[in-house]
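As practice, study what follows.
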Amino acid sequence: MKVIIILSVFLLSGCAKFVYLVEQGIGQLSLQWKGKKISKVLNDPEVGEEIKSKIKDIGAYKTHFYEYFEKKETDIYSKVTFLDRDAVTYLVIVSYFDKVEPLKTSFPFYGKFPYLGFFKEKSAFKYVEKMKKKDYHTYKRPVQAYSTLGNFEDRILSTFFEFNKYDLAELIFHELFHTVFFVKSNVDLNENLANYFGKEMMKEYFSNDQETLNERTKRSERSKKIRMALVKLINDYKDDLGKNRPKDMKESFKHLENYLATVFRPSIENTCNDLGIEKKKCYPLKRNWNHASFSAFMTYENKGAFIKDLREKKNFTLKQYLAFLEQEYEKFKDLDSKKSFTKYLEGLN
């Protein structure tokens, strides 16, 4: 059935998209073929004990997740794939030169996505160069994990082993959330929900380790304040850009560099200073910002506060919250509404 779906996607796509999907299909199948059964990896004397311990932890996180939400456990993460690179894919976001908005690509069955992922870094570079020539802003970053939304038995990847147990649990809960809840053509909401559920489940899972959680909470609160400052600055820039639209790429970069130099960087530096973070450790100052990287950041951060507030107003447990989202999404699909599911939820808040 999955092979038929993949072939249907290919046939329904244009030539350029067809080539892209073929390459990504081969990359995905390669991950599947290279997967080794967990029992075989655990019995392999050449595999370190730390890696074996993390594989067992992932199994425990997976079982906890499906039992928590009373969902049928799938075969996801039943095999391990050891990669020969530092990332499983390379994500590329492309944005217009005259507005902070990602170029979206439509795929049959799944809707629109504000990015493309490439298994080959060389292909990601080629796409970046191609889009730069068309006067788009571009942003590329490595990806350590992703979900196929239950369409394949996702593998435990060797990139997972770089995470400590708390971050690994949050990562696994994040990716598993995508397998139980997915809103078509609404990547922003999907990612923000997975972020929220992943983090909250991690905190519940390690609730007996309050000392570590308290320290992580302190760091998280500092990070949250920086992220909130970034969201405001990016939204301010978007508003300014709407009033002073650049005519071409040259004018676009000139406008951007002026904002970064006179408003963005000084403001972020002050925020980090107020939080007691040294300039050299203030990560937004080390990042290369443009319309595409702004768009990438907003994809994962834009609705975080709304998601948290909605749950608190409803006084839901995490299980109740997921059930609520599932119920409302079914109602939403019956409405045949032109507005997004995010806007629908905001109307309920």
Residues 11-205 form one domain. Residues 1-14 have pLDDT under 50 and may be disordered.
